[in-house]
TrEMBL record:
Superkingdom of source: Bacteria
Origin species: Streptomyces phaeoluteigriseus
Keyword Ribosomal protein attributed: no
Pfam family membership, one: MerR_1
Protein name (database record): MerR family transcriptional regulator
SUPFAM superfamilies, A to Z: Putative DNA-binding domain (SSF46955)
Keywords annotated in UniProt: DNA-binding
InterPro entries hit by this protein: DNA-bd_dom_put_sf, MerR-type_HTH_dom, MerR_fam
Domain HTH merR-type: 1-70
Length: 205
C-alpha cells in the first residue's frame, strides 16, 4: 500500500508516519521509485502498536523506541513481550523503590504462588496503596487482599484468553495493551455498579 493508504488504515497522519520513519520507529517501505515506497501489513501492525504505546500508555518517542527494540529482540518470548508492552517489566531491570509495605506485597505474591518480576511497577503501586490506607486508619493487609487477588486471577485469565487466537507477536502485544489500559475504566465502572447493586440488596427498603 502507499503511505496515504497506510495512513487511512492506521489512523495515523502521513506527517506523523514520516516522523516515525525519520526517528527509526518504523522501518522504511519498499522503494518503487525515487519518491515512492510501498508498505505492507507489518508496517500497519507496527504503527498500531506505536500509537498504542504513545497514546494509550503515554510513552515518549524515545521510550517507545526502546520498548520496540526490546520487543524485536524477544519476539519468541511471549511472556516477556507482553510484560514489556504492558510495563510490568522494567527495561532497566532495576527493582522499584522500596516502600514500608514492600514486604507485605512480597508475602502476598508468595502466598498466591504468582510469578511477578521483582522490578514490576505494580509491586510499588500496591505497597504505596497499602501504606496510604493504613495511614488513614484502614486495617489493610495481605489477608484482606487475598480474596480480591483470587478474583483478579480470573480477570487475568479472561484477558489472556482473548490473545490465544493471535499468532503475530506484535498484534498480541497491541491487543494486550488495549485490553489492559482501555478496559480498566470499564472494569471500574462495573465494580461501582456492582457495589450499588449489593448496597441495594443489603440496605434498600
Amino acid at each position: 500500500m502507499r503511505v496515504s493508504e497506510l495512513s487511512r488504515r492506521s489512523g495515523v497522519s502521513v506527517t506523523t508516519i514520516k516522523y516515525y520513519l525519520r526517528e527509526g520507529l518504523l522501518a522504511p517501505g519498499r522503494q518503487t521509485s525515487a519518491t515512492q515506497a510501498e508498505y505492507d501489513d507489518r508496517h500497519l501492525r507496527r504503527l498500531r502498536l506505536i500509537r498504542a504505546l504513545t497514546g494509550v500508555r503515554g510513552l515518549s518517542v524515545a521510550t517507545t523506541r526502546e520498548v520496540l527494540d526490546a520487543l524485536e529482540a524477544h519476539t519468541g518470548d511471549t511472556h516477556l513481550l507482553l510484560g514489556l508492552t504492558l510495563g510490568s517489566v522494567s527495561l532497566s531491570g532495576e527493582s522499584a523503590e522500596q516502600d514500608p509495605a514492600t514486604g507485605e506485597v512480597q508475602a502476598l505474591v508468595e502466598e498466591l504462588g504468582w510469578h511477578v518480576h521483582e522490578s514490576a511497577p505494580a509491586r510499588a503501586t500496591l505497597a504505596e496503596a497499602l501504606t496510604s490506607l493504613r495511614s488513614l486508619g484502614v486495617p489493610m493487609d495481605r489477608h484482606v487482599l487475598l480474596p480480591y487477588a483470587r478474583l483478579v486471577e480470573r480477570i487475568a485469565a479472561l484477558d489472556l484468553d482473548q490473545l490465544d487466537c493471535l499468532t503475530d507477536p506484535l498484534e498480541a502485544a497491541e491487543r494486550a495493551l488495549l485490553l489492559t489500559v482501555l478496559l480498566e475504566p470499564a472494569l471500574m465502572a462495573l465494580r461501582r455498579m456492582a457495589q450499588e447493586n449489593e448496597s441495594a440488596r443489603r440496605h434498600a427498603p
